[in-house]
Write a structure and sequence with these properties.
It is a single chain. The relative contact order is 0.20. The two termini are about 20 Å apart. By secondary structure, the protein is an all-alpha fold.
């Protein structure tokens, strides 16, 4: 979300963006196993089981990499968050909002 907000700021402060729409993202695909590894590194060393493949949503072509080159070239957009940074930012946000005790509840099973 913070990368999207940064891209919107870039578009709003650009003199005259040549396009009406831009793809915004991290610039690379991240697999669910990569995300699970980041969770283990930054939150808790837990067992996370993920099935094979990157198309974990039961619809065709659910994963794709969007080309952000136009946003980079024309707006000066540069993504700030990779998978590790996203997980770290999430944990920091949960704690800063005072939600850590809710997330740590026995119902969630998360011990962050």
């Amino acid at each position: 979300v913070k990368d999207v907000a940064a891209a919107i700021t870039c578009a709003c402060t650009c003199d005259s963006p040549p396009r009406r729409a831009y793809n915004i993202g991290s610039g690379r695909l991240a697999s669910l196993p990569e995300f699970a590894e980041a969770v283990r590194r930054h939150i808790a060393d837990v067992e996370i089981t993920i099935g094979p493949g990157v198309d974990y949503i039961p619809v065709p072509s659910s994963s794709c990499l969007m080309d952000i080159s136009a946003a980079r070239a024309e707006l000066g957009y540069e993504p700030a968050f990779d998978v590790d940074a996203m997980v770290i930012d999430y944990v920091e946000t949960v704690h800063s909002l005072g939600l850590a005790s809710e997330v740590n509840s026995a119902q969630s099973g998360w011990k962050g």
